[in-house]
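Hello again, I could really use a second opinion on something today. For a while now I've been wondering how a particular protein folds. Please have a think about how the structure follows from the sequence. Here's the protein in full, and shout if anything looks odd to you:

***
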Amino acid sequence: MGTPVVRPPLAAGQGTTVLGWVLPHVIAQVASQGHDAEPLRQLLKARNLEDPDLRVPESVAQEVWKQAARITGDEALGLHVAESLPRGALDLVEYAFRSSSSLGLGLARLARYGRVLSDRVAARAQAQGDDLTLIVGDTGASPLHSARAEFSLAVALRFARDATGADIRPHEVCFAHQGPEETSEFARFFRAPVQFASGANAMVLARADADRPLLGADAALSSIVRRRLEKSLRERDTPDTGSLASRVRRILVEELGQHTLTPAIVSRRLALSTRTLSRRLASEQTTFRKVLDEARCQLATAFLHDRSLSVADVAFFLQYSEPAAFHRSFKRWTGKTPRAYRESAGENS
């Protein structure tokens, strides 16, 4: 099993929020298990959860999940909430997925528009070799509650199965956090090897599954929905939505390997000078190099679960000049070489 990667704490952003859409379903799941959900309702008191545009502070959403897990004692709460969602619960983001022509494209859109759902999400769907890897990155200053991470991959797989009409079985699923003592629910739902403490939240699917057409494909609907979501993304891309380090990390997680990313390039993307970028990151007790290191670590641990990629492929993708430099970095992150990490993950599958 891979060694979990510990990231240094970052300064908290001042405007980090999530759409309130999922919280009523978390509350409903708690009630359906026969527990008193009133403490959760009190956390959301005076908020109109019927409003589809309601945004809730990230700290409140985190507390709702935390308290729901405590009240129920459900070690697979995220899976159970994902299974209980009614069709259309994700609103426009869900229809951007369902109206796509293929599963791979749908997952790419789910990853792109995940930012609309939560400011701390930095996701990507990367097709390489014979597989497609869905990575759900986290730009938050504190660890994402385990149930939320599990929900994010579970809901993507549930949508994949619903929208293709096929029993999609991932090659592998991995989570950054430590796993529960009892993992039978994870085996039941994912029907695939599940790794915990792996350093990343990711799911590897066969390219043949990614190429499957979606039953609800609709190019006209897709175009309309995506225009609305692109507008929402532009509105969310403001200086007060998260720390600067989290905004830099999001760019790196979403785009590293697809574009050359240097401090100068990222500075321009953020409408800052390179000097200002450096100074403001320093005020958050970090540097561009450290944030790049964290993003590379997150992506590397995810991509090494895709066994169709060689270690050299992963090193090249992460913009290392040579595999040896990647080996040194990876051993510093995890205490293992990339090959040993991959072998240990296989042994624990």
The first strand starts at residue 17 and ends at 19. Residues 146-164 form the longest helix (19 residues). Residues 1-14 have pLDDT under 50 and may be disordered.
